[in-house]
Amino acid sequence: MQHPTAPIPVGVLGATGTVGQRFVTLLAVHPWFVLHALGASPRSAGRPYAQAVNWKQTTPIPAAVRDVVVRECVPEAFRECTIVFSGLDADVAGDIEAAFRAADLAVFSNAKNFRRDPHVPLIVPLVNTAHLAMIPQQQAQFTPPLARGFIVTNANCSTTGYVVPLHALERAFGPLEAVLVTTLQAISGAGYPGVPSLDIIDNVVPYIAGEEEKIEWETLKILGGLSRADASSPGGAGALAFDMHAAHPLRVSAACNRVPVIDGHTECVSVRFARRPPPSPQQVREALAAFAPDAQALGCPSAPRRTIVVHEEPDRPQPRLDRYYQDGAGVSVGRVRQCAVLDIKFVVLANNVSIGAATSSIINAEVAVLKNVVKY
Ligand SMILES: NC(=O)c1ccc[n+]([C@@H]2O[C@H](COP(=O)([O-])OP(=O)(O)OC[C@H]3O[C@@H](n4cnc5c(N)ncnc54)[C@H](OP(=O)(O)O)[C@@H]3O)[C@@H](O)[C@H]2O)c1
Prior knowledge:
Helices cover about 25% and strands about 20% of the residues.
């Protein structure tokens, strides 16, 4: 795989938001990508970034972007960019990202709008980068076909954390049959200012609109493969389709809760394997700790060096202690034990703003560059 030899100009849409700020922080020191343009709403456009943004990161605003004037999110303002990362609010992401794709830009999005599109890969970069194979078919939908433009989305932040160990387990032990997941989700998952303090301090909110449906559906698209359609398919014989784990139907049930934690989603997971007898807790621990994703083998600079840390302590992982594991790009797992109803249960902790959002998009783009899906 050829690493880029010259900087690749990139832009960020929604650069003033929670995810956008994480993009700016990561991209300011990226070895391949150079921040070229920042976009946000008409409220922010025309103002220097440092004035437009309500900066909430623990590190200062990168010096190189403080005085960069925020642009409107229109493709003409990002013409010199090869890649555009989107942290746009879902209310506006659909139209804006579609316009950028139509203008032949490569878009890596965090928004939900295109996740269910049958031609748009929904990629967790530590799991299913093979789904980039759908891009030529996506580009061929346009007349004339797009040469460089496409959309890749990453998953909902709570889906992302727990599909990493699920994928590691399927790789080691074969298909899963059933998954139960109960989430304890951080406030920052709702963006800024997020849940009102009087609703979340001293409280747990057992409902996050749309979240359970997203986890249950996205898990199947991500863990499933790509299949070739037969002649009866609307796309015609040979067309690629996401198979939604059809060869081994997987039942997923999610229960989502908002908890008074700033960053880091915790998830309590129980799984049932198709294979009998199922692996033991020790075999599961070893498989998770040994897991190395394709993104790491490819040499992606933002991929975690060690993807899953398996804790032996009975009271880990915890958001305050573990959310910055591998700079927020890795996933922490603990309490691996037998489940009396399914087979095995464990706890997952993932940083929702890093691997749950911006870091995933950036690794997706790195893989796409290395696989020559991004033309630059
Ligand atoms: N937070 C997470 O952990 C997380 C994780 C995964 C995915 N996501 C998804 O990522 C996206 C961003 O989330 P967030 O938490 O960063 O939200 P956020 O903090 O509310 O930021 C939203 C961004 O969208 C911009 N925006 C709003 N209206 C716009 C318009 N009309 N035109 C152009 N830009 C506009 C805002 O700009 P202004 O500042 O100018 O208003 C801001 O930069 C959402 O789709 C969310 O569902 C979030």
